Amino acid sequence: MISSNSPTHPDDVVLDFEEVDAVGVHRAVEAARVAQRSWWELGALGRVNALNRAAEAVAARADEITKLGIREVGKPRTEMEGETARGVAILRYYAQAVLDPDGTSLPSPAVGGLVIARRRPYGVVGIITPWNFPVAIPLWKAAPALAYGNTVVCKPAPAATAVALLVEEIIAPFLPANAFTVVTGDQVTGEALISEVDCVSFTGSRGVGSAVVRAATARGIPVQAEMGGQNPSIVLPDADVESAASVIAGAAMGFSGQKCTATSRVIVVGDPSRFTEALREAIASLPVGDPSLRETVIGPVVSEAAVSAVIDAVADAKGAGGRILYGGDRIDLAGYFVEPVLLDGVGPGARVAQEEIFGPFAVLLGARDDDEAVEMANGVRFGLVSAIFTNDLTRALDLTSRLETGLVRVNAPTSGVDFHAPFGGIKDSSYGSREQGKAAQEFYTWIQTLTVLAAS
Known about the structure:
By secondary structure, this protein is of the alpha/beta class. The protein has helices at residues 22-41, 43-60, 62-73, 77-97, 136-147, 161-171, 187-194, 206-219, 241-253, 273-284, 304-319, 370-378, 393-400, 440-444, and strands at 2-5, 13-17, 103-106, 114-121, 124-129, 151-156, 180-182, 199-203, 223-226, 231-235, 263-269, 323-326, 341-344, 361-367, 382-383, 385-389, 407-410, 426-427, 430-431, 445-452. Helix content is 39%, strand content 21%. It has a 7-stranded mixed beta sheet, with helices on both faces.
């Protein structure tokens, strides 16, 4: 038996559930394979209608989803409300994407003939999703997979299983039976899913993601994996100090820094003293506490292990000569609460400036000029997202062309993501094609080239 406990009140058991074994996963995938035929035969307009109705159902139960997300993963109310609304928008977006062109017409070798390259669904898509975005990530994977004619079997992270089951309860009635199914469990369930499906989309840690990629590529099936980041925000001398500090504080510490897109490193070009104090004050002003309260920005981290990761990183940084500018201690509350941490005094090669801590933790680094800032920003094995803060458009454009990240944001938080735009990184952050936006069609479909000539 596996338990999902609230990080705010660890003695609150949100859900106890069994791990689905290989036999159970096989049955779920086979049922989804049968459902895929009827889902495809429903036709484009049928899929449009089904996804729109699913969106309306999620919107109607948004408050219920939000409350469960706050309880199960500790996401602050304002963020969880926004995430649920985003889930609705994702479903609506892909309901319309069903009607996008699904191929191209090419010149025929014969007069009157046709050559068409058209996209077809793979069949059954397996999605393995994390706990930190319990609504948005399952839907930004499932919605396009469904839109383009696939069916979906979802294996959520154990710590977000209750939310995943609620999402299934809400949207499944608008689809053919078994077209969207949740299988509960951990490693055993995930490995079994990869061995059965036709296509895999994963979001989670680098270690697990690498194993997912190896298993899927060994079978020769398409796989995409989003695996984290060590994201820099570069502050140029002409930046609006107060505005940049406020944005970066939220990007680094919001939801206790538990986002693959959170700012982990702040690289200040030139004299860092004024910006350092502004950032410290901005972090200190962020409300910490009960995530059910609307004013809370920083709630608990997800587990006792996550608390230890932050505390251990502080100790490691101090051992490397780091200076704690703010935070660094556990908070005396019932749940898994830890102070947001801002530090300086370590070099760009320090562990805390190289590895993803996945908590409310940011390192300040100083750079002499733009070139050194770019070198520092690119000097990690991750390449998900970076941000630049400046009023100089020419400098901003120069830096965007030199940064080795899949997303670059100017005067915007690293943590922002637009569901209608391609999402993904390079290096150890991502594997495979991009998620979201129109790019999703490329991953969830294959190309069939059709040639038709007159019988005579």
